[in-house]
Amino acid sequence: MEDLGKQFGGIVEERLKALKTNAFAVEKAFGLPPDAIRNVIRAKKPSGPTLSRVQEICEALDLEFYVGPRRASGPVETVVLENEDFAPIMRLDARASAGPGSENGDVQVVEKLAFRRDWLTRMGVDPAKAVLVQVQGDSMTPGLHDGDLALIDQRRNTVRSGQVYALTDIDGSTRVKRVDVLPTGLILRSDAPSYPTEFRPSDDANRVNIIGQVVWSGHTW
């Protein structure tokens, strides 16, 4: 267990470097106890951190926390442009509505757009688990405009209040909303003040499928 604790501490330390931040800043931003991350890096406890603490740290650093059978990861296609390493990300013909909802049916890959691999790494995005979709509607302005391309990180499908997610709503439509978690359900918010806030009580909230978090968008003028 001591060796696993040291290994985890090393992973956390490298992740902090990749994010260009420090343990104190992350602990403060995510409400973790003082030294929660720093003690892991120092491997202060011979037994290592508890599983619940590991999960909290992974969520704060956007690291995957997984216990289960070994999983195969599909190959990621790589292209080289002007001697720089790029990774292609699929753009789907689906539309994510920033409004009442879009019906998408069978989704097809339209094309692949190349993103710098080092940029994706800094963003914590696995190109094999990311997609691009077009935003439809204006309820998420000024952040997202009608016609924008939104990069969806499908690994980030555990809701953190206040973040923007692509989701499949209870009626089967695909939407983009800012989501808040309450003990009694989910709140779906638009950034444009003219659109009403929506509430999904617990039973309905369990039927909302979070596709992933919006981590980047491209706007065409």
From TrEMBL:
InterPro entries reported in the protein's UniProt record: LexA-like, LexA/Signal_pep-like_sf, Peptidase_S24_S26A/B/C
Domain Peptidase S24/S26A/S26B/S26C: 95-215
Membrane-crossing segments per the record: none
Keywords: DNA-binding, Transcription, Transcription regulation
SUPFAM superfamilies according to UniProt: LexA/Signal peptidase
Superkingdom of source: Bacteria
Protein name: Helix-turn-helix transcriptional regulator
Origin species: Rhodobacter lacus
